[in-house]
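Sequence in, structure out. First:
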Amino acid sequence: MTNNRVLVVAAHADDEALGCAGTLAKHTASGDQVSIIFMTDGVSSRYPSNTEQSQARSDAKLKAMELLGITNIYQHSFPDNKMDSVPLLDIVQVVEQTISDIQPTIIYTHFASDLNIDHRVTHNAVMTACRPQKTSSVKTILSFEVLSSTEWNSPSQTAFTPQYIVDITNFWAVKEKVLNCYQEELRVFPHSRSLQCIEALATLRGATHGLNKAEAFFVERIIN
């Protein structure tokens, strides 16, 4: 994974930690340029007008980005857990502008069938902004899984069936540090957003493919 321009489009700060922090650490270690979009502040639906909580999440995000070696950060202010209240076009245009600015070759974003509404809207915005056209820089779109959202959706929805596996054995320690930046979002085991469960998933994804630790992705598009 070298010579790539990578863009992560995440609804909330901590989604990147849960979904693809090991992969992002691997990208930056390889010298790839990584940028990230956060769509909401991630807390205003729980703590309306609480500037202290908002600042705490922002501080956690910046610590996480420093650990991942990401300096190109776009923070937007769409309504937390209410992104479906905004016209999709408005969200698409934000994503389109960033894609135009940085010309990414790889995009990581949310899975289409996540329980969280912001995840689903973000996914739709990315896929709309990345309509396959000859002039598009985007060659690969991968959806990550977020524990406590991806696996919690209705069984009637499309299941997360990953086809793209990234070995993060050498980057698990970085992912764990990034996760610990978001202490307020972690829970006590057996909650699926506990460190024990997150590590168990990485172990499962790895062992399923003969690796110690891995992150798994649903392939939306790969153009070679």
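Second:
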Amino acid sequence: MPIKLLLVEDYKLMRVGLKSLFEKQDGLEVTSEAENGNEAIEKFKKNHPDVTLMDIGLPDISGIEATKKILELNSGAKIIMLTSHLSENEVLESLQAGACAYVMKDINTDILKMIIKTIKDGAMWIDPLAVPILRDKSSTVVPQMKMSRAMFRKQHANLTQREYEVLKLVVDGKSNNEIAEELTISSHTAKAHVCNIIQKLVVDDRTQAAVKALKEGLV
């Protein structure tokens, strides 16, 4: 069964473009659309999408307010904030409102598809450009366990020093090729390190590894 999407975007050209994009992706289907926040709430109630792609800047209520209202209807709703702005307030308010992801609109198509699938399965995703905002704020957006680096290393002692270095770059949103270039290793070696990290942290993918590292205070 394809993942049912609700697409919330006030600009028709952008909405048509995104819908056309998803029509070419196996496993994804735009089953409803909305051009403002109140319409998004009604479409959510009527169509029960698996994942909602929510623009922040809408003409009536903001995407953040619409997110809050949708989650009041269904606390399990999966909402991705899809925006062209990187505002500290919008990042924090979006995640505090209950959004599962904060994604910039210029994101790679394949990565967006991956994000939608992992969000549907219960993951969380934060655009690498927004990570420093969360890292610098003592907020409860990404809950901290207040675990020291020493304690984290003790708990995950099976991670090598090199794997810690790779994990930090994964949190920064680096691809395997970029990790390889940064650490002067081959892409194959970088990929192997990432696979080892995923296995050792008992997560399903690099996104969940990055989120776990942030939650447990490693970076």
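Remark: The first strand starts at residue 3 and ends at 8.
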